[in-house]
Amino acid sequence: MTKAEVLNRIREIGIVPVVRARSADEARAACEAVAAGGIPIVEITMTVPGAVQVIARLGSEFKDQVLIGAGTVLDPDAARECIAAGAQFLVSPGLDISTIEAAKTKGVLMMAGALTPTEVITAWKAGSDVVKIFPCGNVGGPKYIKALKGPLPQIPMVPTGGINLQTAGEFLNAGAEALGVGGELINAEALRARKFSVITDLAKQFVQIVRTRRAISAQVAGVTA
Q: Which of 126, 129, 142, 197 could join 174 in a cystine, given CB atoms 3.0 to 4.6 angstroms apart?
């Protein structure tokens, strides 16, 4: 899958599940659960034990059925290792120019972390395909995204932090390209108890929110056109 196709898939689905699991088996179960709920995307964070091997395993098992990315990528060495394992996109919690450059060199989609307007602009100019706004919930949530999008409408932003079933629609209305969702979707208790249907049901609810908000936006655009 090309970088453009990866970006289109993320935009289409609108949700990027952030997987922080205790084991490779839990990470795989989370992947299956969200895919069953209509979200064929997972971001396997480097905090998962054996994360690189997990990425390789999931990429082999699910092939093009599920988009497999790497999260909490902190430096270019980790970026290259994840790409070699088959990661189709990279996500960092903060801004590191050398990591962006490593992703660009390999032609892999990069979602660099940023928070302030200066960091957002710097990440975008350095070549980050999408900018992850983190931790968004701690600095105003949807209102903060709306404030950033005002002067920076050309920069696709994916907020992470503070996103749940109650706030997801507000973030989308504020101009978010997609939403990074962690524990509010990949429920830790459900994973531990092997109640994977809980995660699947949550995924379905997030998918429905995205569809509903986009349908409303399309109607409004049609009326004002």
A: 142
Active site residue 204: no
pLDDT of residue 59: 94
Complete DSSP assignment for the chain: --HHHHHHHHHHH-EEEEE--SSHHHHHHHHHHHHHTT--EEEEETTSTTHHHHHHHHHHHHGGGSEEEEES--SHHHHHHHHHHT-SEEE-SS--HHHHHHHHHHT-EEEEEE-SHHHHHHHHHHT-SEEEETTGGGGTTHHHHHHHHTT-TTS-EEEBSS--TTTHHHHHHTT-SSEEE-TTTS-HHHHHTT-HHHHHHHHHHHHHHHHHHHHHHHHHHHHH-
pLDDT for 224: 63
Q: What is the pLDDT of residue 225?
A: 57
Active site residue 132: yes
Taking 50 as the pLDDT cut, the residues of the chain under it are none
What does each C-alpha distance from 110 to 7, 87, 129, 205 come to in angstroms?
10, 11, 5, 27
pLDDT tens-digit readout, 97-150: 999 999 999 999 999 999 999 999 999 999 999 999 999 999 999 999 999 999
**What value does the mean pLDDT of the chain take?**
96
Residue 41 · residue 11 · CB < 8 Å: no
> What pLDDT score was predicted for residue 201?
98
43, 81, 119, 146: which is the annotated catalytic residue?
Answer: 43
What span, in angstroms and rounded, lies between the C-alpha atoms of 162 and 184?
A: 9
